[in-house]
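Re: beginner question about structure tokens

> Can someone show what the tokenized structure looks like for a real chain? I only ever see the sequence side.

Sure, here's an example I had lying around. Input first:
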Amino acid sequence: MPAMTLPTVIPVGYEPDYRTADIGRHDGGQFFGCTAAERVGGDWRITVALHLFDQDGNHLRTEFRPDTAPGDAPTVLATLIGQLSGVSYGDIGIRLFEITAHGRKWGLLDKSDDVGERAELVPQGLAFYPPWNGEYDT
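And the corresponding structure tokens:
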């Protein structure tokens, strides 16, 4: 089997009413806003994250708001995005990245295997495949 290589930049399609509703561009580059939930004891722990990238899709940093109340997560994320200037929502293209924060791994990881090429955004569980058109599976 030939060696598999992912594209350098992975397209991520904007879907305003779904899992990629909080992505786009701003004056400083690109952004991907998201939340991740995990059950701790009998309670849900929500972490809000805003990943920031340069215009070429290189990860610059991530702003985290851990331990957000579930009902507050949309407002917290909107506030983070609202601090960026020149925001426009739409498709983005980002490169692989990986960080560990708040007890979990975050990033866009190469998850290619014997079955085929795949990049996965974790911990959200969005998987991107050829033909690399921005569409994803959950």
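Each token stands for a local structural state, so reading them left to right follows the chain. Residues 120 and 127 are 4 Å apart (CA to CA).
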